[in-house]
Amino acid sequence: MLHKIEANTDQWFNAWKNFQYELIKNLTDPALWGGLLILLIKIVVILIVGRLTVKIVQKALQHILSERDKHPLKLDIRRTKTIGKLLENFTNYAVNFIMILMILAQFGVNLGPVLAGAGVVGLAIGFGAQSLVKDVITGFFIIFEDQFAVGDVIQTGTYKGTVEEIGLRVTRLKSWTGEVHIIPNGTISQVTNFSLYNSIAVIDVTIAYEADIEKAMKVLDETVKAHYENSIDMIKAPEVLGIQTLGASEVTLRVTVECKANTQPAVQRKLYAEIKRAFAANGVETPNPRVVTLQRSERMGS
């Protein structure tokens, strides 16, 4: 029994010595370190070439878009920007995928079975992740049908903002207060696009019943048309429609003006300020709340 234990111990000791010898031999082998250095250089070159390819493609797309913006016809600028952004994302995905395959090939991995397995796995994921497939298909139709584009102001559900990116899977919206909403394309069922056509700004101004209606409308008309001459956001001259409603203590006058898309809030604020100054300068009375108190005295009979 003791001889067997000693024999096993000698075998393990010899095996350990052989392992140490082979390890030291390999670690001190110049060919090994030379091969590792060459492998590392190849991987670094692949990564650098991949990053440069992405940068070159992005610069080329930006150049194409800028040249198209300078074109006198300016055809389909919205769709061009959207497709350009999508192509940038697609290029990034494709280059990264090719870089991974090339790096695996440097380690001696046979890419044939890997690609075949990736196809099978992709098919299985396609059946299992139906929502992902729905997102991609919906994103394709959003771009193909030109429902909205990068730079448009849209509202979908409770989210409203400027479209920053339309990807293969999600759409990014940035609200005017700075929040960024990332919405899966498959959940976008209804969209309101505020950037396709010009907007109508509606300005309702109230004056007192005691004010001269004709004078108020004349001042109002002169004020808004004077502001139109200096405004770059108004498409047509403002139109004073006249009396809109008769309230409890005020008369409401309405003005409408066609302006560029998504500029109506700024136009309204500017016109309200100009109208307020014009009414004050011309003595047009604005309504002030009045409270009338009636008192009844009763004689008490004795």
Task: Describe, in plain words, how this protein is organized in 3D.
The strands form two sheets. This protein has a five-stranded antiparallel β-sheet. With 302 residues, it is α+β, with helices and mostly antiparallel strands. The radius of gyration is 37 Å and the shape is elongated. The chain folds into three domains: 31-128, Helix Hairpins (Orthogonal Bundle); 138-193, Roll (SH3 type barrels), CATH 2.30.30.60; 199-282, 2-Layer Sandwich (Alpha-Beta Plaits), CATH 3.30.70. The relative contact order is 0.07. The termini are far apart. Helix 2 (30-70) packs antiparallel against helix 3 and helix 6 (213-229) packs across helix 7. The model has no long low-confidence stretch (mean pLDDT 79). It has seven helices and eight strands, in the order H-H-H-H-H-E-E-E-E-E-E-H-E-E-H. 55% of the residues lie in helices and 17% in strands. Residues 90-130 form the Mechanosensitive ion channel transmembrane helices 2/3 domain. It holds the Pfam family MS_channel_3rd. It is found in: Cell membrane. Keywords: Cell membrane, Membrane, Transmembrane, Transmembrane helix. Its main location: membrane.
Question: What structural keywords apply?
Answer:
single chain; 302 residues; alpha+beta; Helix Hairpins; SH3 type barrels; Alpha-Beta Plaits; 3 domains; 5-stranded antiparallel sheet; 3-stranded antiparallel sheet; 7 helices; 17% strand; elongated
Layout of SSEs?
Elements: H1 2-27, H2 30-70, H3 77-106, H4 111-128, H5 130-144, E1 153-156, E2 159-166, E3 170-174, E4 180-184, E5 192-193, E6 199-207, H6 213-229, E7 239-246, E8 251-259, H7 264-282
Antiparallel strand pairs: 1-2, 1-5, 2-3, 3-4, 6-8, 7-8
Helix pairs in contact: 2-3, 6-7
